[in-house]
Hints:
The chain is mainly β. It has no helices and seven strands. The protein has strands at residues 2-4, 15-19, 28-32, 44-45, 57-61, 69-73, 81-82. Strands 1, 2, 3, 4, 5, 6 and 7 form a seven-stranded mixed sheet that branches. The two termini are 20 Å apart.
Amino acid sequence: MFLTSDPKYKSLAHYVVYLETEEAFANLVVFKEENKLFADKPGLWYPAPAHDFADHVLFVTTNRAFADFSVFYTKSRSFAGCRE
Length: 84
């Protein structure tokens, strides 16, 4: 997963996301994995170092109305997953 807010990558993005500050309002709760092999379920993401190495490119917006879905980062692996 490669997240960027750089406008030059917006055309490469598969989705537009909004980073939530509250877990209750997020569509997806995400746990950052340290190893790419363990990022194999919804909500388990391995941050790619560049867009060339990512399976998905996501553009981060500051306006929730423009987002396809919202994301909240959790510190607990067991809470990761889709809300809807």
